Amino acid sequence: MGGKNKATILVIDDEHGIRQSFKMVLKDDFNVLLAETGAKAIDVFTKNSVDLILLDILLPDTNGLDLLKKLKQIDPNTEVIMVTAVKEIQTAVTAIKLGAYEYVIKPFVVDDVINTINRALEKNSLVREVTYLRKELERYHPFEQIIGEHEEMKGIFELVSTISDSEGAILIQGESGTGKELVARAIHNLSPRKNHPFVVINCAAIPGTLMESELFGHSKGAFTGAIQTTVGKLEIANHGTVFLDDIDTLDTSMQAKLLRVIQEKEFERLGTTKVIRIDVRFVAASNQELKDLIENGDFREDLFYRLNVFPVNLPPLRRRRTDISILLEHFLDLYAKNTGKPAKRFSKKAIKVLVAYDWPGNVRELQNLVERSFTITKGNMIHLKDVSMFNIGRRTSKEAPLKEAVSSFERDYIRELLESVDGNRKKAAELLGIHRNTLLSKMNELGLK
Ligand SMILES: Nc1ncnc2c1ncn2[C@@H]1O[C@H](COP(=O)(O)OP(=O)(O)OP(=O)(O)O)[C@@H](O)[C@H]1O
Ligand SMILES: [Mg+2]
Q1: Among the atoms of ligand 1, which is closest to the Cα of residue 153?
Q2: CA separation for the pair 80, 99 (Å, rounded)
Q3: Which residue, 160, 210, 249, 271, has most beta carbons within 10 Å?
Q4: Summary mean pLDDT of the chain
Q5: Which CATH number fits domain 8-137: 2.60.40.10, 3.20.20.140, 3.40.50.2300, 3.90.226.10?
């Protein structure tokens, strides 16, 4: 019988002729159910999955509006289209206020009815999709993506959970690649603002002159080149979170303007005088110590205190080395999953070297390294030689003879390994799995001090 993918429509009308004509018109494209009274309608509706209802306003046993309310109580997601005579239009309008989607007037034009039905079903599927996505978002675990078992990271997770609920500004400081943006997003997703926008303002990427219009927006003609009115990022972020990334790069005049917005929660679009009030939470990030910049006169102290209500300081990876192998594994799993390729592992020796390495680029550098190694390694074991961190053959042209290429690789490799262990030869030899004397003669041979 009725195709599984067809939407199901329930027609509620006391006139046999009307029910049959709806059935005729609709049966090719929809599964059609019929009910002649309110009682029958409730019965059919509770026993079937119905996508849309065509409801006659005048029924013998009940008032169409009362029935509409009952149906909406049973399932508010089912769209209802009222069927009405001209003299009942006022009631139809009331029905819309009660949640009906639309009304059609008898005698109806078939195409109009079908169009209205299709629009209602389309809206309905969008609403369902949004509801679904909202649920998904709630299920999404903000900390699932942030890996860290080191005590310092645990402390940060706790701090972030606590401050997400409040309104004060947050200043996240930490070296490049330590996860500042990741933490900022987690804060937003844990906050009561999570269903509103998270807007990133990249202070380093936007030239000073454009920054003002980026933040505040402008009216048409506010300056040369302002060919149309543009809404600023602050307005877009209303009720959500504004992430001021690389705040240390903001010039001092913008710092003053930003300070005013944070204090007053209001501003004007460029070229207008109308005051726009906003409700946003500010989270800022910097990979430089703002305190140092203040001393040099490069950062306003008052802005610093405004932002630094809740400080979050992310430790560099080398200060939590126990997290390195966990992160390596995490990203290996991630790339295997994303590419659909079989899982790969680092060899013990590779892990040893990587744990000893200092990671100036922190988690980002580590993530990139895992991606490269995962991609270039054929088998399921990634050996030290597959780890391209040490820029294999950086100074080697393609034509260089093999011996020269190998020496060049060894030279770079050993030099960087030594740097990563602060020149400690004993440790370097251990990591390489060779005797200390062998390392010394190797260094001699390669011209390394
Ligand atoms: N603890 C972590 N667990 C998992 N992934 C992480 C972690 N920290 C950072 N990352 C990942 O490392 C990359 C860099 O992180 P992010 O962009 O948040 O760093 P950042 O501190 O903003 O760096 P920058 O100052 O250079 O902008 C991202 O891909 C992020 O997902
Ligand atoms: Mg960043």
Answers
A1: 1
A2: 8
A3: 160
A4: 87
A5: 3.40.50.2300
CA distances from 368 to 147, 189, 230, 249, 362 (A): 16, 26, 37, 25, 10
Q: Taking the complete model, does pTM exceed 0.90, yes or no?
A: no
State if residue 365 touches ligand 1 by the CB under 6 angstroms criterion: no
Closest CA to 11 of 27, 2, 98, 3: 27
> How much is the pLDDT for 132?
65
Superfamily of domain 151-315 in CATH is: P-loop containing nucleotide triphosphate hydrolases (3.40.50.300)
Query: Which secondary-structure segment (H or E) carries 158?
Result: helix 151-164
Does 191 sit in the ligand 1 pocket, CB within 6 Å?
no
* Ligand 1 atom nearest residue 366's Cα: 12
| Residue 219 Ramachandran class (φ > 0 left, ψ -120 to 50 alpha, else beta) | beta
d(CA 377, CA 369): 12
Cα 251 to ligand 2 centroid, rounded to whole Å = 18
* Token pair of 442 as six digits: 């190797």
Q: Looking at residue 37, what is its pLDDT?
A: 94
Residues contacting 367, CB < 8 A, separation 6+: 327, 331
- Tokens at residue 162, please? 């606590």
Mean pLDDT of 371-381: 89
Distance (Å) from CA 180 to ligand 1 centroid: 6
* For the CA of 175, the nearest ligand: 1
Confirm or reject: Cβ of 182 under 6 Å from ligand 1: yes
